[in-house]
Design a protein that fits this description.
7-stranded parallel β-sheet
Amino acid sequence: MPQRLAILGATGSIGTSTLDVVAQHPERFEVTALAAGRNVAQLAPLVARWRPRYVAVADHAAAADLQALGLPPGVELGVGDAAVVALAELADVDTVVAAIVGAAGVRSTYAAVRAGKRVALANKESLVVAGALLMQAARAQGATILPVDSEHSAVFQSLHGHRPADVRRIILTASGGPFRDWPAEAMANVTVEQALRHPNWSMGAKITIDSATMMNKGLELIEARWLFDCEPDRLDVVIHRESIIHALVEYCDGAVVAQLAMPDMRAPIAYALAYPERISSGIAPLDLVQCKTLSFTAPDEKQFPCLAVAKAANRRGGAAAAVLNAANEVAVSAFLAKRIPFSAIADVVDATCTRYTDPRGETIDAALATDTEARRVATAILRERHS
């Protein structure tokens, strides 16, 4: 019987890459449900091709636009966050691909875990905002969380067959983004267009900016803490500009196990969908002779202060990471709208983390309330400093 999929965030880069992998293995997978925001122009042809039984969109305007473009017979259309949560809990879904960007994906990811689903996790913010809650729910409900981020998939693969007690250190690699060779004093003059030109990966705007600030790597450290039950002081980052090695695990005997592949998200997606098997992902084979050189440097936290701020939040624990993530989403949105300079992203996030010091996160509602309040604080700081 084919594995029945719900793809949440179907029109984003992870969603479209997932469907590309699925198209290569029609006998293995069935697209049961698709969820998207307001990108109806891209969603409509996906619905027409895959004929899911269930579709969810962000609001009634998007639903009306989708209906105007034509829905295949028998498709059940839902609206809003509650509809996306309902897709994550469907009894006739085996695997939920959690690929909604940002904190908007937290509640549906949590619902999938609570329902005991196999979750292909691309929404790192779920673990950043509510990591302890998510992992506790997974243990209680027997859910399987399989990482889709290339770095965490690499760690997962490099840990396979080894005892967690033997791990000395987990090392995530970072491309360094478009500004890895820029001096710190030049970063204030970065334009939106420059920040969106990632040298190695093709991603959505928000995650591309996070890569440029290296906040993305900070969020991934927090995610790794929860996924692999690893203390912050045993997590590290190195800049590896070729993006061939995606992560490394150092063991107590001095051995280091690494996972290598071309920089293409279809590889970790295919691994998560087929685990414990491996299937063709459609990516090009790795030619090490052609690569010639694999280089590594330490990140400069003066050049990339967002990384330092994220590390501090990870060490602080509690709901500090939820505050960090919310403030970053507000600041990145302001930068993309050209309301603040690039260098102000770190300043806004750091100021928010300093000002909002008593968040609560013992339940999913409390964690999301922290997210809401942190956004209010970050927005106030933006008005104070950049109005």
